[in-house]
Amino acid sequence: MKKILTLGMVLLVGVVLAACGSSSAENGSNDTVTIGYFPNINHVAGMVAEEKNLYSETLPDGTEVKYQYFPDGSAFMTALETGDIEAGLVGPGPAMNHFTSGAKVSVVAAGSTGGTVIMARPDAGIESPEDLAGKTFISPRVGCTHDVQFEALMKGEYGMTSDRVGGEMKHVTGKPATYSSMFKTGNVDAATVPEPWASFIEEQGTGEVLIDTPDVAYGETLPAAVFVTSNELIENDPELVQSIVDAHKKATEFIQNNPDESKTIAIDKIKEITDQELSREVIDRAWERITFTYEVNGEVLQDFANSSHDLGFLDEKPDLTNLVDKSFIE
User: Fold this and answer.
1) Exposed, middle or buried, 43 (CB in 10 Å: 0-12/13-18/19+)?
2) Is residue 87 within 8 Å of residue 228, measured between CB atoms?
3) pTM (predicted TM-score)
4) What is its main location (predicted)?
């Protein structure tokens, strides 16, 4: 409970500060730039950029840089649309869903790929994916990135769906940090788990890998995190957007060239934000399932969106033609 309350308090402070300040859209200036991200390992570029003060290196002199942390993609996208943040890292699912709902946002880079693992409780009687019929699985949110990856695999390869559409698997939702304890108490049988929580579960011995990252739908090609900003900012101040993306690129290159220091930053930052301390062994194992890159593949995002529609998470088949703007990374 302490961990959840600590994160909640941090998020509440972030919301209060955002509400008390004036955004660049409101005051017509860009004296303050706020970057958002999640406290998880797919968003290490955000942690590195904050720790190394990289945005101050690329933004105009005198620009104040702030950071806001989010519990889920919906909250992040809402903050982006209302101007509480200028840019940041979010899962592809929320970015895609808000775009198809009419949000004027653009994916201008990727943050990472990979990192989704399907795990099973050791005593749940699950030896293969076929054994998931009648079992309860958990994902962070209905229709989130990891949920779609799991359900697309199960429907496409095994002809199995969740009870959301009258299928054989029971679906519940919850925070990934709680999955280990839920396995231990027997509340769930399987989980679609983002890193580093899959590696944490492995370390705790409360769950076993059923389907590893390469075999999950879009496992190694789908961006696990994308870097997004508003179309309004792109239209009004493309130079500022370029400066923001340049800092994100610097952070990504730092991770690629300095993995050990980047791991330490991730461990310290996750502990600072969530009060959850992860071991170096957990981070080392999780790192092997993730590729940190700012290159973004729009075709993979479209394929993923098609899967989300096929699964019934989207009412209409989406057209993501204008979602990705690669001009800032080329």
Assistant:
1) buried
2) yes
3) 0.84
4) membrane
